[in-house]
Amino acid sequence: GNSVTQMEGPVTLSEEAFLTINCTYTATGYPSLFWYVQYPGEGLQLLLKATKADDKGSNKGFEATYRKETTSFHLEKGSVQVSDSAVYFCALSARRTGNQFYFGTGTSLTVIP
Amino acid sequence: SAVISQKPSRDICQRGTSLTIQCQVDSQVTMMFWYRQQPGQSLTLIATANQGSEATYESGFVIDKFPISRPNLTFSTLTVSNMSPEDSSIYLCSVEDSGTVAGAFFGQGTRLTVV
Hints:
The complex is a heterodimer of chains A (about 110) and B (about 120). Chain A has about 110 residues and is mainly β.
């Protein structure tokens, strides 16, 4: 079956620190992988995506590389800002399941000045 | 990308009552999804709604509790019936990008509190 395992939180970092949020997946076939962000009081927003192995998704300084050999899609940012404080969700979508999304449990990030 | 309007954005309801949540998309889509996000937790798929057919429910969710309508390719409703405090959650509507997996698009969600 399809599932996503995401690093437990919460994570607290100082401004300009390096961020890594781990995500691994189990899937049948060749899924697409996503990171979503949820700012306080708001809905989900697509942050970045990768649709095949070795693709790198990037947006707003965040990056994640689709690693088929390790079934991973870790989220990284070189220098976080206070405005990055949010909950981050790793997700996969597999066409065999009608593009249903499977989400990780979410990782709460707080960046302090 | 698709723009999804969901309403109400929030509501406080008495136990035993029902609430219908509306989801309007600015383009025609084949599949629409309804998710629940319980406090502090991730998203759980409730059901998939295709136009012209009955919704397909995930394990643990039944039509009597969460009836869904999908009258056309741009609109869907989810009703939370006979509510209890355990139904207090955020309910989100989602659509895929037809033709390619560009990423699911989500409405802002409906924050439901049952008292």
